[in-house]
Amino acid sequence: MSQARLSDGSAGDVDYGRIGGTYSHYRRPETAIALQIRRALGDAQTVLNVGAGAGSYEPTDCDVTAVEPSAAMRAQRPSHLAVAIDAVAESLPFEDDSFDASMASVTVHQWSNLEKGLAEMRRVTRGPVVLLVCDPAMMMDYWLSDYIPQVREIEARRFPPLKRIEAALGGTVTVEPVPIPLECADGFNEAYYGRPEAFLEEGARLACSSWSLVPQSVVQQFVDRLSQDLASGQWDKQYGYWRSRPFYEGPLRLVIAEAE
């Protein structure tokens, strides 16, 4: 999230007003990930969700306050969830210690000032701050890197190192791996590790913002090559074992920071 906001209010390096129209169709909460996040929130009754998007992973048994700068994303929130407040991480419109816990799901790479955003989350939170992030050091360890390294390189540059996140949060910080199931409902890039055909859908690609930062000509070359390799059996010959892996422990991490 940057302070220079785009036409629909998006505050990062991507205009969700342009690419986010079908986001909620592809980015549905994955039950296993939701349970891991809920455990990390502990016994919190009031929860702040920063960069809340369409509301994935918001606990339904808590009083959730959601913050989301993009109008396109706010419009996709289901009716049973709270209406999101138009605000950014770096300037949260709440008093100190307003919430039992706070969370942010795959959003810190959009912030213009990571340290300020995390300091704001810590300021308004009495208990744990829970972040779903990606470890950039693990980003290239995936077959997609062999087909379109530009996407993975962009993601590796955008996500801050875990040590930087830990230092900014302070206190006692725990980092947990987040295993990704084969039929993961949340369509981030790693979710399709054993279902490569999904990458042929434009909507699936655009639900991961890094694709919009790669030249369209490069994306088309990727689509053409993957289509050919799937049709010929070349992909399965080289990477077919991914189809039978029940879980992929890739770059996804859950960072849990307890209050000092």
Number of domains: 1
Summarize model confidence as the mean pLDDT: 92
Estimated share of beta-strand residues:
5-15%
- Main sheet: which strands, in order across? 2-1-3-4-8-5
Helix content: 25-40%
Element pattern in H and E = HHHEEHEHEHHHEEHHHEE
| Shape field | elongated
Indicate the radius of gyration in whole angstroms. Answer: 18 Å
CATH topology: Rossmann fold
How many β-strand runs? 8
Please report the first level of CATH classification, the CATH class: Alpha Beta
The largest pleated sheet is described as: 6 strands, mixed
* Low-pLDDT segments: none
CATH superfamily: Vaccinia Virus protein VP39
The CATH architecture can be named as 3-Layer(aba) Sandwich
Distance between the termini: 26 Å
What structural class should be given to the helix and strand makeup? Answer: alpha/beta
Describe the structure.
- This protein is of the alpha/beta class.
- It has eleven helices and eight strands.
- The protein has one domain: Vaccinia Virus protein VP39 (Rossmann fold, 3-Layer(aba) Sandwich), CATH 3.40.50.150.
- It is 32% helix and 15% strand.
- The strands form two sheets. Strands 2-1-3-4-8-5 form a six-stranded mixed β-sheet, sandwiched between helices. The chain has a two-stranded antiparallel ribbon with strand order 6-7.
